[in-house]
Each structure stands twice: as structure tokens, then as C-alpha cells.
Design brief:
The complex is a heterodimer of chains A (141) and B (864). Chain A is of the alpha+beta class. Chain A is built from 2 helices and 7 strands. Chain A has a domain at 27-124: OB fold (Dihydrolipoamide Acetyltransferase, E2P). Chain A is 23% helix and 32% strand. In chain A, β4 and β5 form a beta hairpin. Chain B folds into 4 domains: 1-190, no CATH class; 204-420, no CATH class; 572-700 and 813-817, no CATH class; 708-807, no CATH class. Chain B is globular and about 110 Å long. Classes of the chains: A alpha+beta (141), B alpha+beta (864).
Amino acid sequence: MKKTHIIGILVIAVAIVIMMSSVGDASTYVSFGEAIERAEDGDMTKVHVVGRLKKDPQGHIVGMNYDPLVDPNYFTFMLVDTNRVEQKVVYFNPKPQDFERSEQVVITGNMQNSVFVADKILLKCPSKYVEKEIQQNTASL
Amino acid sequence: MINTLIGDIGHASVIVAFVAAIVSSYAYFMASRATVDISGDDSWRKLARGAFYVHGAAVMMIVFALFNIIHEHRYEYYYAWSHSSNHLPVHYMISSFWEGQEGSFLLWIFWHVLLGVVLINRSGKNKVWEAPVMGIFSFVQLFLTSMILGVVIGDLKIGSSPFILMRDFMPDTPVFAMDPDFVPADGTGLNPLLQNYWMVIHPPTLFLGFAATLVPFAFAMAGLWKGKFHEWIKPALPWSHFAAVTLGIGIMMGAYWAYETLNFGGYWNWDPVENAVYIPWLVLVGAIHTMIAYNRGKSGLKASYILVIASFILILYATFLTRSGILGNASVHSFTDLGLSGQLFTYLAAFAVMAVALLVYRWKSIPTTDKELTTYSGEFWVFIGAIVLCLAAFQVLFTTSIPVYNSFLGFIGIESNAALPADQIAHYTKFQLWGGVAIAILSGVGQLLWWRKGEKGSFVDAITLPGMLTLLFASLIIVLSKLGMLHETMDNPVFIILLVAALFAVFANLSIILSLLHKKISLSGGAVAHIGIALMLLGILFSSGYDNIISQNTSGMVYSREFPEEINRDNVLLWRNTPVEMQKYSVSYHGQFQEVVGVPGYVNTELLFPTADPYKAIARGQIVQEDKVYFETGDTLDLYSPENTYYKVQYKEREGDGNFTLYPRAQVNPNMGLLASPDIKHFADKDLYTHVSSVPDPNEEKDWGELQEYDLAIGDTIILNDYVAVFNGIEQIKQVPGVALEAGDVAVQADLKIFGERKNYHAHPVLMIKNQMMGRVPEEVADLGLRLTFLNIDTENNRFKIGVNASQKDYIILKAIEKPFVNILWIGTIVMSIGFVMAIVRRKDGGAKARPAAPKEKRKVQAA
């Protein structure tokens, strides 16, 4: 067998290992229901959940708690997933500053003791890259 | 008035550029035919050249028109309105230019034009390449200009024009129904995170790198097309070096920008947008290696074709990923989807299919060698290096493309919910770290064998000294880490392996430079670049593998019962003026500051009286900086950017008397909320990286307690919020900041001295009678959380009424990280670039006589 063949086989082997291992590391988008099921089965892998913040009719966010004076590394909020299931989420970091403005929230983490412990929060702010309104108070010429 | 002329000029130029690119690519194609070569007829080539120059001129015109729109604040145009504002300084207007997708396409087109002109003029002695190479160039330009064409045919939208008017972009907005000539008075401004000098130079560098990858690709295609299967390597090689070094520098500039501006605590986050350019860079570097190996050993031609083509296709793939909106939830900072995904995919698919088809068609004709490479030849190890680079690129590509698999499966009707790994840093590090180890070892071994001409005996001689030095220094570093050089002992075996491998690469390449010193130093570009890569690996190893969060919160474990397992609490609350001990520092926060035009450093916001114009303030006291008075009380001051607040944080060493001040920044932006950027103290052996993670919401009114009234005579002492205060009396004043006093108006201020913990404060609340109305200007002592109001005067009894509100003191929440030896990473980047430039200089004339230079292997990895 030629050396190039051996190398070729090795390269393919490594590529397969990379793919298998990456597939194993890949997370999934799930609902809270599934996240709870996983936790009950003892599966502690981290998942992604897409949701919206719970708001009252006036548009205020409900169930959000961050009191830096008590603990700056403790932030909780209620997230409603795409199946309209509500779940308390804990984030052991300061509250992201533009949290209130976000429309959609993606969290990464897992269920622990009946709360979802998030270690990453990704905010999708509609205003971030496209501004849709002209400020009407700007003077017209 | 709406200026439609400049937009029309711009749009017409886009169309001219597009048409000229069609003409140029067709004419170059005709000029490339074999019959033309033989007949010597150069009329097609002349036409094509002319068309390319017309295209270039039109592109310059587009650039001029777009910049004019931004520079002259023509907010009737959507691009100016959405990417700039009145207060933006000129250098940030340049960043506005490429903040949007259209502008960044334009930047890319612009670089292609410049590179094309250089190629046309350099091809003088080598005329055979011009027609086919420039044919590919013009064909690419055709696709790129179509992206900014902004033409709608039926339902088909081709490109997105940067010259669209507000009223056409948002026809439903009521204001345009009332007045079609409405022009907004101000734009919505440039994303504050991009208001950074790196954002002025990082995108052009990166796009120059993007553009330069086209050159080797065009040469490879031309070689296949014209049957010059190996002649293309020589002219393409210096261009490949150029592309790799610009792309590499561009990537590292982006990393440095992220380090300085964003607050994720590092320079590399494995975000898909970062990965998208890292992948083609790795493959391009792999391509350089196989091309160099081919130059010497005449094997590896097919591999060179594959890698050069792959690197260009991957650049297109990167463009597709970041601009089509396909990343969706997976990335924080891709561009807005302009609805160009179909067009972007066509661009990607057209070149991928064209290149692969041509390669397959010609595959059998590409000469190969039957010579088997021996294990003791340099070329063999260069190939292994290229393979490792490609495997590393493949790994990043495979994971980064997860959102693409979802979309693709969704497209063919299969629901897929795969997401990127939850811990991306751990995921990528697991592979890339070993890639880094392999690259470091191979660059040492490969280089030594390359220059020793593959003799077993001399190789053993050559490797002995670097090997010994490596082991010596590695042990020394481990011992030093035990003695406190790092905050923990280096005992992680994986990190030790990377340390040894990188040190070996440094010493092996140093020994090559030394041996080349008395031969021909200009050959040592490869060795220099490899040392740069090894240094980068070392910098990454120390700064990411051994970073040290010094703001660990050891108190306030209020919620710990809920979660017994250990949770990192990386943020600390700092009350104003109250020091907190963090490892070897005592850290304290001392108020909010602003930047004022004409004053060095920062000015306390307590000295700035706000006016109706947020960019102007009135000095409440003398503005003094280091014993020099810059402004007097009552002067009007210009603020650079009222959005930016700087939080003064003092660090004092607990043992020893070293102390320094940092001003981490937070920006209040109406569109994006509050954005924090770090301030970094650079030491020779580490950086201290500090940012605020949260501050009391500046838009929320402070919660002042109930007003307490005090009836005072001169000299009375009172207790306010636990502080002792003395009422010293009143005086009449002539000026009240922010108020125009007229004849008959009277203003008096009270003088209270308050004894704080650290210093004493003078509060001067003002009472005035203006137009027979009573007016009050309260004074706030933010340090103490007090607000004093001069309520009334009883002139008969000489009694004065002072009202006092108390509130919570000001605070910030802070995170501080030590990053050991991060400087080595930046130094390594510079060394690597120098190595590349040396190689380009040596090869710029095709390197006809000299021996092929050393191989280059380079990698970077985030060890975390």
C-alpha cells in the first residue's frame, strides 16, 4: 500500500471522528415540555429554548426579578415558549442590559430543580439592525 | 430640499458598472480563445480592458455618490438616515459607509477594481494571463455589482440599492403621504459599538483579504481553462501570500476590536461570523503550503488546485452565511436579511459548479508525479501540515453549518431542530487545540527537514538543540507558574503539551533563521511567520487558558440553598466610594464621567449642567485637569458623545502602593439599550480587563425619599443621611447655570458643607426670583445620595428653609478579569505578518532563481 493511501484513510477516519463528535456536541431547539422530560430522564445535556417574555396587557414584563443589591449574579424571569408553556428561568449573571426591549429570547441551559438554569441568553432585538420608525418629532424642512 | 440628483448619479453608475462588467467579461472571454492567441489579434482584449476601466470609473463614481450622501447628511436617502447622524465625526462616517450590506459589497467591489487594475498593468511581460484571469475577475464583478443593482423586474428583485430614498423605502409612513419632500432632520446614527477606530480599518483590511483570494483562484481557473496546468502557480503564489496576510490581519483586527469593545471577556467567541472567515483562511494557508511544495518537488499540483478553489468558494460561502439571514438565531451579529439570499446562493452555486466542473473535466490532464515522498523529505511534512489545516477548517465548517442543515432539511420538507453546541468554546477548543499542537510540531519538524534536505543524520543533529531548549524553557515556565507567575500552577497536561509544542516551534524556527543568517536572510520569511504563529498559540494558551476572574463574588450567597452545586458568581457590586477587596486589589467606584472637547481625560458629570442640546453642557465649576484650568464656571462645553458614560474605577494594590484608574464605558443608546465596553490596563505580563455588567437604569428617575425640611440659621449643624452638615450661610450670585437672569431677577445660593467619609462636599442649592416667580435649582451630591433644595428665606428672622431628599447611593456591577501574557498574541500576529511580507517581497517576481522558501503553517486556537 502506498503512503498516500494510508494518509488518505487516516484523513477520512479523522474526518469521521470530527463529524460524529460534532453531532454528539450539537444541541437542539426544544420546548420547555421536552426540557422537563429530559431532566426527568436524568439527561443533563444543554438545550436551546426559543421563547418570548411574559408581558401584561400594558406591555410590562411579568415575573422578572433582578435585585443587584441582594445578589448581582442572580436574575430570574418567566419565558413563554412556542407551545405557550411558561417556565421560570434563572441566570447566574447580571441582567442583560437591553433585556426589556427584546422581542424574542433564545436561552441555552437545562432544567434543574424545577427551574431552567440558563447559561447563555441571546436576545433578538428588532431594533438592533433595522430601524423601522422615523422619529416624528424630527423637524420637517 | 430633496437632492435626487446625487442618488440618480449613483444608481446610474451602478447600472453602468454592471453593464461594463458584462461587456468586459464577454470580451475577455472572446480574447481568451485559442484562435485569438494564435492570430495575435488583440482587439477583443482592448475592448475588454476598456470596458473594465469604464467599470472601474463607474465604481469610483458609486463610492463618491454614496460617501457624499453620508457626508452631506442627506437623510432623504435611507442609507444615510439609517447609518449616520449629524454628530458623527468624519472618520466614523467612513465606518457608516460600510455598516450596511450594500456599502460593504461596494467596498469589496472597489478592492476588486484596484486589484484588477494592478493585474492588468503588471501582466506586461506575461500577456497570456491577462485575458483569462481578468475574464474571471469581470465575471465576479458582474455578480457583485448585481447585489447593489436595486432593479425590480416583475416579482424578481435584483440587488438592493444603497441609493434608495426614504419615501420609496417606507412608502406607507404617513409623513410621506402628507409631504413627499419630507427630510428627517437627523439620522438614526451609527451602531455605537462600531464607533471605534478599529472599525474604520478592520472592514477594509478584511475585504481586501476577501478580494485578494480571487487572484489565486482566477489564476487557477485560467490555468485549467488554457491548459497551463502548472505555470499559474508562480504568479499566483505571492498573491496567495498577500491574501493570507491581509485576511489574517483583518481577522486579528476584528478580534482586537471585540476584545476592546465588546464585553464577552475575550477576543474570540467562535461566533459563526468569525468562523466564516477563519475557515477560508485556514484553507488558503493550506493552499500556500501545497503550492510551495509543488514548486520544489513537483508533487501536489492537484491538491493545490483543490485548495485554491476551495478557499475562494469558502469565501463565497462565508458571504452567503453572514448575509443571507440563514444564521437566524445562531449569531448575534450577522447582517440584516435584505432578501438577497437567492441571489447570494446563485453567486455561490455558479462559481462552485463552474470551478468543480472545470476541475473534473481537466482532472485527467493535470500532470502528476509517481514519485513517492519519503518520510524524511520536507515536502512530505508540508503536506501533512496542509492536511491538518484542512481538517481543522473542516471541523469548524461542519459545526458552523448546522443552521444551514436545518434550512436545507426544512426546504426539502424534513423538520430539523439541531442547534449549535451549547458550549461552543469547549466544543471548538477540544479540536482546535490539538490542531494547534499538530501545527506547532509540524512547523518545527517540517521546517528543519525542509532546510536539511531530508537527511536522517543531519535532521537528528538539527533537532537536538531546539528540543533541549524547549524542554528547558517549558520546565522553567511550569516552575515559574508554581511560584506565582500565573494565578494557578500549570498542571493541565493538555495545556502543557501545547506549551511544549509551541516552544518547540519557536526554537526550531529560530535555529533556521540563525543558520540562514550567513546564507541568505531573505529566505527566512517562512521561519519568521512560523515563529509568529507559535507565539500566537502561546498568547492564546496563557490568556485564555489561565485567565483569572478577580471579581469573584464571595459574599451574598443568598440563593445558594436553591442550588447546592458550585456556581460561578463573577460580578461584584460596588457602592460609590466604598472599596471592595478583590484578590490583591482594593477596588472602588468613584462616579460617572464624560469626555469634553478640549479637555484631556474625563470630566465628572457632576460638573456638567445639562442643556437642551445633549451635545452641550454648562460647567458648574472650574474644569481642572492636572492643575491646569481648562474651563471656568459657566462656560459652555461641547461633549464628544453624550451617549457615553465612563465609570471611574480605582484599583489599589493591597500590599504595595501601586494604584491605577480605569474608566470602563457604558453607552445609552435609544435603539440598543445599554452597551458596556471594557477598559483595559496593560501590564507587560498581563492585561487587567474591566467592564461594568450593570448600572442603575439611567432613564429611570431616581427613587428619592420623602422631602425633609430643615429650618436653619447660619452656623447650624444638621445630620443628613448619617452625614454631618453645616449651614454656612447664603450669598447672592450673578449667574445661574442654564438660566438667563434679567434685570430685576435675584438669585441666592446657600452654602452647606457636608462631611463625607473620604472628603467634604460643598452643596450650593439655588433659590431665585425670576419674573416675580420663585425658582429653585436643587443640588445633588451623588457621592452621598443626597439632594438639597433651597426652599425659602425668612428675611425677617434670618431663618432659611432647606429641603433634603435622600436616595440609595449610586452603584455599579463590575466584572474584572486578568489575562496573562495576552501581549504575546498581538506580538505573534505582527511577527507572522512580517514573515509573510518577507515571503511576498522575495517571491514578487516569481522567485525564478531562489530556492522555494520554507513552508508556512499557521493556526490559531482558542484554548479556554
